[in-house]
Amino acid sequence: MNAFKSALQLTKGKTFFLSENTALRYLNFSALYFAQGAPEGITFYAIPAWLAMNGKTPTEIATYVGVIGIPWSLKILIAPVMDRFTILSMGRKRPWVLFGQLCLIISFLVIGFVPDPINNLSGLMLAGFFISFFGAFQDVATDGMAVELVPEDQQARANGLMWGSKVIGVSLTLVAGTALINTLGFSTAIPFMSIAFAFFIMVPLCFRERPGEKLLPWTQGKASEFGKSIQLKSWKKILKNLFKVFILPSSLLLAVAIGFNGLLNGFMDTLLPIYTIQELDWTNTDYSQVYSIVTVISGLFGMFIGGFMVDYFGEKKMLSIYLVLYIAALFTMTLMASFWGFTAVVFGFILVITLLFVFMSIGFFASAMKLSFKRVAATQFTLYMAISNTGRAYGSDLVGTLKELFSWEEIFMLIAISPAISLITIFFINFKKHKKYIKILDHSK
């Protein structure tokens, strides 16, 4: 909260356009990423914990998480549409951000009308699918806006603030959502959360991308010259440029690394509530409180340290360190199986892997922005994120199968394969050589 107040103070006496105000950019994207984390806190964490508390099997829970994760894998189909069409007089991506946020509020209201959600997983999955779809929709628009507006020398720090804000959003809504579900009941609690989400639409409503643009369709303003100069008007050009840059070696290597990082995310998202509630006899309240504490801590570290570390030491070095530490944490947890009954041990493990995952995400996001080609930067960046989310959905779906075949100790060992592959892959990424290829592409027709 203090960070947002400080950012507001920094904007005093300065222009209130995102393209011209660094502090305002940080504030805007932090708020929008917090708004993205809020729905995830409910759908990916609070609801699975609630299902586990009500006796649903690991396979049923994994299926639910896998289904609601599908829209996040489809973002690459949305991004080119946003690059191709927009209300340019309101900005390149701002109109899409507003639309996504409005639909997200409506979809949260709808989930409250699912009858008997505990015994109606199909209805719950369908409603959750639409929440995820519009969450992913807003995410694409926000990422596209960030790629276009944040200068390269600010990308790591911006990603730290953005990802940290998202993690805190997940945490706070997990706690609030769990408390409301337990006190008011599911059908009342979840729609009630949409009231809070409604406030976030004020952020893109108040700040324009560039000078001279309209605040709303019926207000005065016009498209900026910069916006008109980079607006893509041909599907052929979008696909041609995307293909040229994506088949470059470093692009492909990052895609593989990000995909396995997403797989790791999916594993842990689905595994933790099942493991703690059904194996260790925690309640969903116990889980939500622990997870919320560690995510707030991780989010704050990500906001104020994660971006700085990447800026100072570089993406490859920091990602390598984080991945090695993550693998070590999984092996350590396996060796300490006899101590799983001690809450402090499990709490420490969840804190370490959550902190490392936040730092890894900042590094991967900054790398994706760094490798993006300006002509198709929004679409290329979204493609990386779509690959990550495909891995996440697949990882979530695999948890049920793994639990049927292996013990918890063996599962933790097997999960370590994912960060190990990411570690090997990023070793071969060459940012300098990639930039040389980009310069050649930039001068080609």
Automatic annotation (TrEMBL):
One Pfam family, short name: MFS_1
Domain Major facilitator superfamily (MFS) profile, residue spans: 250-445
Residue spans crossing the bilayer: 61-83, 95-115, 121-140, 161-182, 242-264, 290-310, 322-340, 346-366, 411-431
Superkingdom field: Bacteria
PROSITE patterns on file: MFS
Localization annotation: Membrane
Protein name from the UniProt record: MFS transporter
Lineage, broadest ranks: Bacteria, Pseudomonadati, Bacteroidota, Flavobacteriia, Flavobacteriales
